[in-house]
Amino acid sequence: MVRLSGDKALDAGLMLARLNAARVIIVTATDPVSTGMGAGGFGAIDASSIIVQLEETYAKEAKTLLAAARAKADAADIEARTLYMPRQKPADAIMAALEAEKADTIVMGSHGRRGFGRLLLGSQAAEVLAHSSVPVLTVK
Asked: Is the CATH code 3.40.50.620 the one for domain 5-139?
């Protein structure tokens, strides 16, 4: 079984919350849907219905993911709130949640990309580390 960095980060965050009698806010985000073709969408095709379907699918998957995370927190008897941030890059969503919720620590997964992959895809963890005013625990 392969465990995703988000799963590992959730486990680490719940353990940290248990040790400190803290509550957690579990955040997931979905990137804005990009057509890759500028303002015109998919060229001459009206892509609005495709974009709506993609965003609905993203929202459904986020709801499923957050329900599973909440169940894990409930099983550990840790107070948790879930937050879905659509149309935002993960780093932006985490920083917005940090501000709104006045959180004192961030626990997040990192894919651990290096070299060319990191250059192309960027690092959401590095972005959060660069802009966070609170401690950040990254889990690979």
From this structure: yes
